[in-house]
Amino acid sequence: MNLLSQIPILSIITYLPLAGALALVFLFSKERPGPIKAFATFVAGLDFVISVPLWFVFQRGKPGYQFEERASWIPSLGVDYHFGIDGISLVLILLTTFVGFIAVYSSYSAIRERQKEYYVLLLLLQTFMIGTFCCLDFFLFYVFWEVMLVPMYFLIGVWGGDRRLYAAIKFFLYTLAGSVLMLLGIIALYFYNTTGLLGYKGLGHAPTFSVEALTAVASSLPAEVQVWLFFAFFFGFAIKVPMFPFHTWLPDAHTEAPTAGSVILAAVLLKMGTYGFVRFSLPMFPEAMRTEWVAGLMIALAIIGIVYGAMVTLVQKDMKKLIAYSSVSHLGFVMLGVFALNMAGVQGGILQMVNHGISTGALFLLVGIVYERRHTRMIAEYGGLARRMPVYATYFMIMALSSMGLPLLNGFIGEFTILQGAFARSFWWAFFASLGIVLGAAYLLWLYQRVFFGEITNPANEKLQDLTLREQLTLAPLVVAALWIGLYPKPFFDVLRAPSENIVRAAGGRTALPPALASADAKASKRGAAVEAGH
Amino acid sequence: MTFHGSDWFLLSPELFLTSAGLLLLALAVFVRKEHEEFLGYLSLLAVAVTVALLAIVAAAPARQAGPILAGMFVVDNFAIFFKVVILLSIGLTILASIGFVGAAPYPAGEYFALLLFAGVGMLFMVSGSNLIAIYVSLELMALSSYILAGYFKGQIKSTEAALKYFVLGAFSSAVLLYGLSLVYGVGGKMGLTDLAAMYAGTERTNLVVLGILFVLAGLLFKIAAVPFHVWVPDVYEGSPTPVTAFFSVGPKVAAYAILARIFYVGFPKFHADWGLIVACVAAATMIWGNLAALLQSNVKRMLAYSSIAHAGYALLGVLGFRTPFGMWGILVYLLAYTFMNFGAFAVVIFLETRGYAAETISDFNGLAKRSMPAAIVMLLFLLSLAGIPPTAGFIGKYYLFTAAMKAGYAWLAVLAVLASAVSLFYYFRIAGAMFFSEGEGARLQSSFSLTAAVAICAAGTLAIGIAPERLLAVLRHCVPGGY
Q: How far apart are CA A347 and CA A495, in angstroms?
């Protein structure tokens, strides 16, 4: 069973797309796009296939990291090549390989120019994203975190919409400005661990960038230092999430990016920020989290993001921009859950990261499909599409419902759990957040009504063709995933429970579960104990 | 005064390069215009032999002996490291010049000989451990550089560059010399170690602080820090591009080496006096270099301002001298900078020799279509200049930021990282032009020598970024005085 722990499976999953990209560069002629597409799809698909066994072999409930790989990289600095995952990274890696494959497969007809470069960049991006989720060394993490921006910049800049140059550089500059401040935070931690910095005596340990070691160091620092460091990391993560008021790059980047780029941006890249908060900020800076104004500020920004994001979404005239702004609102939910600092909030937040990836990714795909046919994304240009494209309308309905949090679909589970967590902390948090849900239903249903219902008023829409088989194949897996999480989320909660517990405990929050989840939990732990006894 | 036979052996790389330069000058008379490339390869050979001699010297047991030639020079690991970097920059310049100079209607022999003489000056500079020795070798480098700037004597821009460089360079040398005279006047010694020992035992006086500040100002001129940078854009724009590429790395690296040595060995006691000034200069240099670069549409001017900004980052290392990180930072950064900055200029030269003016950014339009390899290596250099991992520029900047934090200049570190994020904007204007814009023109082919130069730079940029360990391990032994 543990064959997987014998081989460097994480490195294989991470670097397979890179190898594929190199093969594309050197072995394929750009004159013939057919083989390039097929090969890129094969590589992305294979990457997904080999990442699936992780889900089965991963031991739930076991504390710490699994599938660890460690090698010395730059001993002079104490930098290790250190990979390893826990439940949170596992879920996100699977999301990445899953969405990555769909992104590649969905690009066949959308991308007609410079196809070879396009698929090379997509595969490179895949490697950098997976690597970021695997890193257990801050230096290595920073390398992946930064270099990821480069392929995304080119994806937006070459294959994007009319304002692509502006959007691409804005995306790059915003995220870069945040992450360099994070770099200073990492350097500061490095010195607190070794020889000290700015009046604080260091611990005198051997130099290291190990996430585990530096997390321990950070959480032992005095409160005011923790607050400073928290904000150094905050800029890196909050811009990426993006939290209000750092969200202004998002509508531009998402709207201008090619469809697959928007899908990856929404599904995976934004999750880097929330992942950073969960994995690093919470356990590293418990004193900062206990500082009232810091915690209050985070919650306030999250709630403003939810409500303000939803209100701005409501007035959008461009479908893609509408979906993009809705991300601000949804990610606000995730942040609210995370900063609620209890089990329901954190687990719900992480699950909602996945849900948002599935729903919003699918919505971007859907918008891309009509854009390919009509070359416009303005809502006013459409109307009555349900008559011409019934299958398309169905898919759109399912994903819109999932995005607005209808029961039986994934969004409901995430939002409900987050609200539970928020409610446990404060009635008002939950109240304002539910306002976001109401607005969410409003903008999605209104969008749906304007695009799909009524008579066809625009003659250009008369001849629209319904979904092709390939388009259905890209959407169907997302629908299945949405239904799975909506109907039976327990496997996800099982995977997320142990790491969330660690994080909540480290952050000084309450790990006790609300009753509804606790009973499910007790069953799970009983079964877990039985499995272990059977070993 | 004691002289040893082994002293001459330790200086054999410099002596060889001097004679090679003289020989080249004489030989050039007999070489016809169409065979001038031969002179370039000959000078390249001379540099290669110098490197070999340097390797022999570095490995020789006789090197343990400390200062040589009556304390004038010292061949420590610090000097060896910088000599390698300088010879690298000379070699790269020759490679990048071969096609360029051959096409120009001016004699190539003088060009290559002057390049070698400038190299000799720099090799002596980084070894200097005596104020007079440092000054004289600095002047040898500077005089050769002035002439190189005006090598295209028929072009008014090139002549203007040379004149400007000469006037401001001579002025800054005078400032430096005045500072040195004050320092000597108070301390009564010329040797750096003697001076340090002397000052350690005496009271701090205002006169010596004034002298140190003059020395600092003179050196800040040479490394082109704000507010002593005004000559840079014009000189860089007007000089022949390979010479600009050379100016942006070789002399700058050498000036940094003596700045490091003088302040690290000679004036450690006065850190409190020059620390804040250097911090302010570094801040102004990073801010102004990057902001001004944002506004440029001429590529050479943009890279000129970018190199000003990079001088500012490197000053963080000078500030960090009280911890090892500062010195390591300067060493690794200057090596990384040599690779990436020369590489970027080499791509400009590539365009220029292929019929583009390479003046404005629009000359880079659609380069990806005309020559994908050139566009990709240029992207690599730009990423490295902007400090994006995994490139040499990131490792270098990492060390510098570390040094600034450790030395207690957290505000400066914040400023530096933000400035470096801003710099991405103008670097990526070139990247955007290369990959996003449509350009006309046929596919471009590179010459052998230029390809070699670019390949060396690209390999260095990537190698330091991905596998820096060996370099970093070596650098630990390269602080001044280390063997």
A: 10
Minimal CA–CA distance to B360: which of B298, B302, B301, B305? B298
* Neighbouring residues of A535: CB distance < 8 A, sequence distance ≥ 6: none
A180 and B CB contact within 8 Å: yes
Pick from B390, B436, B469: which is nearest to A143 by CB?
B390
- Which has the closest alpha carbon to B377: B391, B365, B387? B391
**Best B294, B361, B436 residue to mutate vs chain A (most A CBs within 10 Å):** B436
Q: Chain A residues with CB inside 8 Å of B473's CB?
A: 76
**B245 falls within a domain:** yes
Tell me: pLDDT of A530 over 80: no
pLDDT tens digits, B138-187: 999 999 999 999 888 888 888 899 999 999 999 999 999 999 999 888 87
Q: Which of B424, B426, B430, B472 to mutate to test the interface with A (most CBs of A within 10 A)?
A: B424
Between β-strands A66-74 and A79-85, what pairing exists: parallel, antiparallel or unpaired? antiparallel
CA-nearest of A156, A199, A239, A191 to A78 is: A191
- For A147, the closest of B388, B405, B473 (CB atoms) is B388
Task: Kindly list the residues from chain B whose CB atom is less than 8 angstroms away from the CB atom of residue A184.
Answer: 401, 405, 410, 413-414, 417
- Using CA atoms, how far apart are residues B136 and A102, in angstroms rounded to an integer? 67
Instruction: Write the pLDDT tens digit of every residue in A274-299.
Output: 999 998 988 888 888 888 888 889 99
Cα separation, B328 vs B264, in Å, equals 12
User: Is A264 part of any domain?
Assistant: no
**Tokens found for residue A288:** 């900062």
Mean pLDDT of A64-72: 86
Contact by Cβ (8 Å): A247, A170? no
Could you list the residue range(s) of the whole structural domain that residue A325 is in?
A: 291-535
C-alpha dist (Å) from residue A361 to A88, A97, A263, A402, A403: 19, 13, 5, 12, 10
How is residue A328 written in tokens? 């601000």
Domain count, chain A: 1
Mark out chain B residues that contact chain A at CB-CB < 8 A: 383, 388-390, 394, 398, 401-402, 405-406, 408, 410, 413-414, 417-418, 420-422, 424-425, 428, 432, 435-436, 468-469, 472-473, 476
- Taking CB atoms and an 8 Å limit, are B428 and A169 in contact across chains? yes
Strand blocks (E) in B99-206: none
Whether A157 and B435 lie within 8 Å, measured CB to CB:
yes
What is the extent of the structural domain holding B271?
A: 9-475
Closest chain A residue by Cα to residue B468: A74
Q: Is residue A164 part of a domain?
A: no
H/E run at residue A427? helix A427-452
Count of Cβ atoms closer than 10 Å to residue B394 Cβ: 25
Nearest CA in chain A to B418: A177
Structural domains in chain B (count):
1
Q: Smallest CA–CA separation between B342 and chain A, in Å?
A: 22
- Distance CA(B246)–CA(B201), nearest Å, equals 42
- A480 falls in which pLDDT band (50, 70, 90)? very high
What is the pLDDT, as a whole number, of residue A286?
A: 86
DSSP A450-506: HHHSS---SGGGTT-----HHHHHHHHHHHHHHHHHHH--HHHHHHHHHHHHHHHHH
Asked if A183 lies within 8 A of B401 by C-beta distance, the reply is yes
> Do the chains contact at A184 and B413, CB–CB below 8 Å?
yes
- Is A434 inside a domain boundary? yes
Q: Considering the domain boundaries, does residue A402 fall inside one?
A: yes
Share of chain B above pLDDT 90, in %: 42
Per residue in A99-116, pLDDT tens? 999 999 888 887 788 888
Q: Which residue has the tokens 């928007």?
A: A262
The answer to whether residue A71 neighbours chain B at the CB level (below 8 Å) is: no
The DSSP code for A197 is: B
Please say whether the beta carbons of B78 and B479 come within 8 A. yes
